[in-house]
Amino acid sequence: MANRRTDHTQTRTGKPRSGHQQPATRGRQHDLLMLETLENVGIVGDVVRVKAGFARNYLLPRGIAEVPTQEKIEELAGQRAEAEAEQKRIRGEQEAMIAKLDGHELTVERSTNDQGVLFGGITQHEVAEMLREEGFAIEDRYVRLGQVAKRVDTYDVPIVINRDLKCEIKLNVKSDAPEEEVVEEDEAEGEDEGPRFNFYVPKEANVESEY
């Protein structure tokens, strides 16, 4: 996953003094050294600037970050280089996947009533699962369906990994009910001869006259 910064983090480019044991404070923010990679915050070896509450309540007590020292930064330099290389690899795979997904179409058939309303909608998780079955490394949160698809229709579904890695796919929802069969009558060959009638013509009676 490409490293992104949220509003509570900011990578610091300067180096702390050796032996510095208290977080460097900038107003309500602290500078901390990442001991492991945390999405949207930083990779191992990064010195990041975070909000004081986030540092105090989450990063420090969980051992995810610590007060930066020059010695520790140098100690983590190798891990940081490996993490950067891994992120570049993941970024390349995600860029290729987004390019392949752009304009991709999914078609699903579901039971509906006669108004085209599904008996149970299609969720974000189901769309992600269909994409995973086709070989795409998609997490549920990448699928921005917005709301459950409840009708027979075509939906434009954004796929968003981050702000600069996104595309749009189409979700075609169809009814699994068979279409009404239309029986066509064979066209009559030749001209219409009209109705035919069979008449019974009795034989002429051979009756001798008595007169």
From TrEMBL:
GO terms for cellular component: ribonucleoprotein complex; ribosome. Residues 42-69 form the Ribosomal protein L9 domain. Residues 178-192 have a biased composition (Acidic residues). Pfam families: Ribosomal_L9_C, Ribosomal_L9_N. GO terms for molecular function: rRNA binding; structural constituent of ribosome. Residues 1-10 have a biased composition (Basic and acidic residues). GO terms for biological process: translation. PROSITE patterns: RIBOSOMAL_L9. It comes from the Bacteria. Transmembrane segments: none annotated. Keywords: Ribonucleoprotein, Ribosomal protein, RNA-binding, rRNA-binding. Residues 1-29, 176-197 are annotated as: Disordered. PANTHER family: 50S RIBOSOMAL PROTEIN L9 (PTHR21368). Belongs to the bacterial ribosomal protein bL9 family. Binds to the 23S rRNA. This is Large ribosomal subunit protein bL9. The lineage of its organism: Bacteria, Pseudomonadati, Planctomycetota, Phycisphaerae, Phycisphaerales. The gene is rplI.
